[in-house]
Design goal:
The complex is a heterodimer.
Chain A lengths: L5 E12 L2 E12 L3 E5 L6 H8 L7 E6 L2 E2 L5 H6 L2 E4 L11 H6 L8 H19 L14 H14 L4 E5 L7 H16 L3 E6 L2 H7 L2 E6 L2 E7 L5 H9 L17 E11 L5 E11 L2 E6 L6 H8 L5 E8 L2 E3 L7 H7 L1 E4 L3 H5 L6 H4 L11 E2 L2 E2 L1 H14 L16 H13 L5 E5 L7 H16 L3 E5 L3 H7 L2 E6 L2 E7 L5 H8 L5 H8 L2
Parallel strand pairs in A: 3-8, 3-9, 6-7, 7-8, 13-20, 13-21, 16-19, 19-20
Antiparallel strand pairs in A: 1-2, 1-4, 4-5, 9-10, 11-12, 11-14, 14-15, 17-18, 21-22
Helix pairs in contact in A: 13-14, 14-15
Chain B lengths: L2 H31 L4 H13 L2 H26 L7 H18 L6 H30 L3 H23 L22 H7 L12 H18 L1 H11 L1 H6 L4 H16 L2 H10 L10 H11 L4 H24 L7 H15 L5 H8 L5
Classes of the chains: A alpha/beta, B mainly alpha.
Chain lengths: 518, 364
């Protein structure tokens, strides 16, 4: 089909969202049959660029060629016809449909479903053999593991005739072992001539799997490299535009008394599904306790229960002289008064209110404080002054309490939330995903502040999906899988491989027992 | 002016203005279709609303009702609740006011009876809203559905009460006996007469000042108290509210009580102010009109006062229009109101992209 061996060629693609220049004259050419990585920080414009290719957005200007043909998609259907398949960060499934039904979704063909189902079965069996993508076809998607679900997404793309597969942060939800499995599939696909575009911000993946890599920064394409001729240091520098030291220097922890003791917790989430069981641990003053695990293994639910958002169904939490149990629930307000600060995992939905001004976001959770209320009157001037002072303390830019919260960058939003929680001098800090979606400069700042709080003798519980983050700032690590603790290790003994095994609950059982005890 | 400020002006002022103008344009087309000269009609309408003292009085009297119901819808809206039940809450609130006026010792001072009447309206309006609120908060029944149903319930209940319980002995029509004089809120023309100034008689009474006072209270409550903050936070993000220790279920109950109470004040203007007895359908149309008023007024008390005034003009001017022009029925008011709701509510953001492109383009 193609005369040249260029699968996708973008020339000067431009895209605005309101005031945000998401893609600024981006040019890119992807060779057919290669694995091409696109790296960049969150918000660099990678996902926007791929969404343009997939017909979700239209570019404001610029030219796109797919297999030497002019291409301008206004719907994903046109992209599929042009041979582009996309595997999203969040899978697009009807969860209670079987794998087979999900694959034919959107290409059902005639009026009778049985005919297209049997046709699809034959075709899928062939594809699965050819690419080494074995998946059971008659199981409901919700019963598959995340790694398997991802395979189904890839199969879906191939079934629809994709010659170019775009994967957006495919390893974000996988254990290290599952990621390796995924990379083996990539190799097989490449051998069959499929072009793969891999979007990620993890340099390790880029180095180990791609042939070419392109770097985006602030909406611009800043460099193209052959992977064999570059190194992580260069890529990191290109991504952020300056040299950074990600390894934070921290002193030995001086851990003291336990400030929070969790005993045998069992917690149901908002949907009434049991997500945490038999979890016990303690958080000591002057120590950062990291909780690692693949997203969705109960860490988020645990965090919410510690912060008073979800009730316990079994067990108890002893915290700063109070005991929380299924019979005695303390709400977030009461916990806050006790000295527990909570930085939520979901910054956008929980930590702030996008439509509120920064000063109102900085008020969230502290609206009943005596200093700002005089009788019924909430003193706006004090609220504003208070916001200004915490903004200065945490270098939130711009230092404008009246600006709408959504108009701050991700990093500054997060700094504002941290400032709100840290500046009231809490004793126990519960922190979820402190640096998700935050630029590298702010990551450094935030991690230092967390360590400062530790050195001031606070007890810190840190939940993060970034293993690297857990390993670089925690003092002790517990690993969760499927709602249970599958391992506890001291940071000095932790390595990525062991943690990965624990995250998948795949350690030999004798080892698990010795490491799980407190 | 920064872009943010310009956007705020577009959202707050220009959009409602353009929407209303479009609604008028559409009304003009309707007039042309029924062989009425729209310019002529506008002249009559404006004259009807503002041209003579009595007309002004009527306009402001209608405005008073719309301020109450507009505030009611707006308060609920800030908590993310769509209170369609203003109609019923106004009706039952009126019952509360009437019960105070009918059964209190009439020899008491008006300074006591009128505040008690206001309290009765607030209380009964709130009680009528609390049941849908409870069902929404703890049973998951959608507030839009339940408040609509409660409008019908209110209507049926009032017919029953007025026919069987509260009807004046020997009276054929379903209405209560007259309130005692001490439960009458003074007419504005009486007050002026007391000061030696003679103005034309109209139903306009001092309730309009009660409406303005409550507008100020609502503004203070929503933006300058911690409870107002909690309501607005819940309306914008349930998750963030829960995170900060606010109980959204309680917020639903409290907000709907306040909303129902405000709607319940329609009876102050209508019953204590004008009719001086309880009768059927005194609330007719104001509850629903309040939705349009709140939408047009951007759920802000100042906007609501302006929008309520516009609706007052339409009501009064429209009546005169129907009176003056043979081929215009009095239902033209409903048509105009409908068009305003369509363009201010349903097509709220019609002009937004255009206005942004011309007045606040993206800075590159």
């Amino acid at each position: 089909m193609a005369k040249s061996n260029i699968a996708i060629e973008l020339t000067d693609v431009d895209k605005h969202f309101g005031a945000v220049h998401a893609n600024d004259k981006v040019s890119l050419s992807v060779k057919s049959g290669t694995i091409h990585g696109i790296v960049g920080e969150n918000g660099a414009g990678k996902s926007t660029l791929m969404s343009i290719l997939y017909g979700f957005y239209q570019s404001d200007s610029g030219q796109i060629k797919v297999f030497d043909k002019e291409f301008r998609a206004t719907s994903s259907k046109q992209s599929i016809e042009a041979g582009i398949g996309m595997v999203h960060q969040h899978f697009m499934f009807v969860d209670n449909f079987t794998v087979l039904e999900n694959v034919i979704l959107g290409s059902e063909g005639g009026a009778l479903i049985s005919e297209s189902l049997s046709k699809a079965r034959v075709e899928l069996t062939r594809l699965a053999k050819e690419y080494g993508l074995e998946v059971e076809l008659d199981v409901a998607v919700e019963e598959l593991s995340v790694g398997m679900q991802q395979r189904v997404e890839i199969l879906k793309g191939l079934y629809k005739g994709a010659k170019v597969l775009i994967l957006d942060e495919p390893t974000g939800v996988l254990t290290p072992q599952e990621s390796d499995e995924l990379f083996r599939i990539f190799e097989a696909l490449k051998k069959q001539g499929v072009t793969i575009i891999l979007i990620t911000h993890k340099l390790r993946e880029i180095m180990s799997i791609t042939d070419y890599v392109s770097v985006m920064r602030a909406g611009k394409m800043v460099a193209h490299r052959q992977t064999s001729e570059t190194n992580p240091e260069e890529l990191a520098e290109l991504m952020i535009g300056r040299k950074v030291l990600l390894n934070i220097v921290k002193t030995e922890a001086k851990s003291g008394n336990p400030l929070l003791i969790a005993n045998n917790l069992e917690i149901y989430n908002e949907q009434g599904i049991k997500r945490v069981s038999e979890v016990s641990f303690e958080a000591r003053s002057g120590e950062i306790l990291g909780i690692a695990g693949v997203t969705g293994n109960g860490q988020g639910t645990l965090l919410k229960a510690l912060a008073g958002i979800l009730p316990l169904s079994k067990g108890s939490i002893e915290i700063l002289g109070e005991t929380i149990s299924p019979k005695r629930h303390l709400n977030p307000q009461e916990l806050r008064n006790l000295g527990v600060a909570h930085v939520p995992e979901d910054r956008q939905k929980m930590g702030m209110i996008a439509d509120f001004s920064a000063s109102e976001t900085a008020l969230l959770g502290y609206q009943n404080d005596k200093e700002i209320n005089q009788g019924v009157w909430l003193k706006r001037s004090s609220v504003k002054a208070n916001c200004e002072s915490i903004m200065e303390a945490f270098d939130v830019r711009p230092t404008n309490p009246d600006l709408k919260s959504s108009n701050f960058s991700g990093g500054n939003q997060q700094k504002l939330i941290l400032a709100r929680e840290f500046e009231r001098d809490p004793e126990v800090l519960i922190i979820g995903q402190p640096t998700r979606g935050v630029d590298i400069g702010a990551i450094e700042f935030i991690r230092k502040r967390i360590i400062d709080m530790r050195d001031a003798g606070k007890a810190i519980i840190l939940i993060s999906v970034e293993l690297e983050e857990i390993m670089s700032i925690s003092d002790r690590i517990i690993v969760m899988c499927d709602g249970e603790i599958t391992g506890t290790v001291d940071v000095s003994d932790a390595d990525e491989a062991t943690l990965g095994m624990m995250m998948a609950n795949a350690l030999p059982s004798d080892k698990k027992i010795t490491e799980a005890q407190l | 002016m920064t872009r943010d400020r310009r956007l705020a002006w577009i959202n707050g002022l220009l959009l409602p203005l353009f929407n209303v103008l479009t609604a008028f344009l559409a009304t003009a087309i309707v007039f042309i279709l029924i062989n009425v000269n729209p310019i002529e009609a506008t002249k009559i309408l404006i004259y009807g609303a503002f041209g003579y003292e009595e007309g002004i009085g009527y306009t402001l009297y209608y405005t008073t009702n719309f301020i109450f119901t507009g505030l009611a819808v707006a308060v609920a809206f800030h908590a993310g609740l769509f209170n369609i039940g203003g109609e019923g809450q106004a009706y039952i609130g009126g019952l509360g006011t009437a019960l105070v006026a009918l059964y209190i010792d009439p020899t008491l001072s008006a300074w006591l009876i009128i505040p008690l009447g206001i309290f009765g309206g607030l209380l009964f309006g709130a009680m009528w809203a609390i049941i849908p609120a409870y069902l929404q908060a703890y049973r998951g029944s959608h507030i839009v559905i339940t408040t609509i149903m409660f409008n019908f319930l209110a209507s049926a209940l009032m017919v029953y009460l007025l026919v069987h319980v509260l009807r004046e002995m020997g009276q054929m029509s379903p209405q209560s006996k007259d309130f005692p004089d001490s439960a009458w809120i003074p007419f504005v023309h009486e007050v002026f007469a007391g000061m030696g100034i003679k103005i034309a008689q109209s139903p306009l009474n001092l309730s309009i000042f009660i409406a303005l006072i409550f507008s100020a209270l609502v503004w203070f409550f929503l933006w300058h108290t911690r409870w107002g903050f909690a309501i607005r936070a819940t309306g914008k993000s349930n998750d963030a509210a829960v995170y900060s220790g606010i109980n959204p279920k309680k917020i639903i109950i409290v907000t709907m009580c306040i909303s129902g109470a405000l709607a319940g004040l329609v009876g102050i203007n209508e019953l204590m102010g004008v009719q001086h007895r309880l009768l059927l359908d005194f609330n007719y149309g104001y509850g629903f009109g309040g939705i349009a008023v709140a939408l047009m007024g951007r759920n802000h008390p100042i906007g609501i006062i302006i929008a309520a005034l516009l609706f007052g003009i339409l009501y009064q001017g429209g009546m005169d229009l129907a009176f003056e022009m043979q081929n215009v029925s009095r239902h033209i008011i409903v048509v105009m109101q409908g068009l305003v709701i369509l363009f201010c509510g349903g097509l709220e953001y019609l002009y937004r992209p255009l206005l942004i492109r011309f007045l606040a383009p993206i800075e590159t």
